[in-house]
Amino acid sequence: QAVRDHFSLPPSELLLDRWVCSSARRTGTLYLMSRHLCFDSAFTKNLSDTNGLVVMLEDIRALDECPIMLLFKGIRVAIDGVSDEETPVFSRFVAKVPDVIAAIRA
What we know:
The structure is a single chain. The chain is α+β, with helices and mostly antiparallel strands and 106 residues long. 17% of the residues lie in helices and 42% in strands. The protein contains three helices and seven strands, in the order H-E-E-E-H-E-E-E-E-H. The radius of gyration is 13 Å and the shape is globular.
C-alpha cells in the first residue's frame, strides 16, 4: 500500500517484484507493479518524489541489456515518446540483469 500511495497508483495495482539498483548515479529501488515500472532513489529515506519515475508497462517499447562498465551491465528502457538521450538506464542489480528483464517482460 505504501508503494501504491507513494507513486499515486490505483488500489488495483499489485507489487510483483522489486530490485535495488542505480539510475543516473543514484541508488534506489525499481518496483515492478502489475501495470507500471517505478523507480525512486529516495523512497526508503523520505518518500520524496523528486527523483521518481513511473512508466506504464504498455508504453515500454524495448528492454535491452547494455554495458555500463567492465563488470557491470544495465537495462535500458526504451519508452514510447521518450528520446534515446532521455531513456532511463538501470544498473547494479543485486539480481542478474537477464532475470530482471525476463520478470519485466512477463
